[in-house]
Write a structure and sequence with these properties.
Blueprint: H1 21-39, H2 43-48, H3 52-87
């Protein structure tokens, strides 16, 4: 079993799945915040039983979800910009137009 992970792969790795990432992260963030809000009325019970970390975990999940939404929205925008740049042959990465003039100046 020592060499089972070494050597050449038997088949090519599949392409990564691209789905509605922004919607998925947004939905998960909403669920974390909803769980936080639903548990707040029972804070006394959680405190009596030593489970207040459940409440704060939900709040942390919602906060990290907000960071995740910011990240995936930026990622999605960058992917769309890259696809638009690849589809437009007159758009060069160095900021010049097809004639080589910067910003379209003659």
């Amino acid at each position: 079993m020592t060499g089972s992970w070494t050597g050449t792969p038997r088949r090519a790795a599949p392409e990564p799945l691209e789905g509605p990432v922004v919607g998925t992260i947004t939905g998960g963030t909403i669920i974390w915040f909803a769980l936080f809000l639903l548990q707040l009325p029972f804070y006394g019970w959680f405190s009596d039983h030593g489970h207040t970390w459940w409440i704060w975990t939900c709040l942390a999940g919602g906060g990290l979800g907000l960071i995740g939404i910011w990240y995936v929205r930026g990622r999605d925008a960058a992917i769309k910009r890259a696809a638009a740049a690849a589809a437009d042959p007159s758009n060069n990465a160095n900021g010049t137009d097809s004639a080589g003039h910067p910003d379209g100046t003659p």
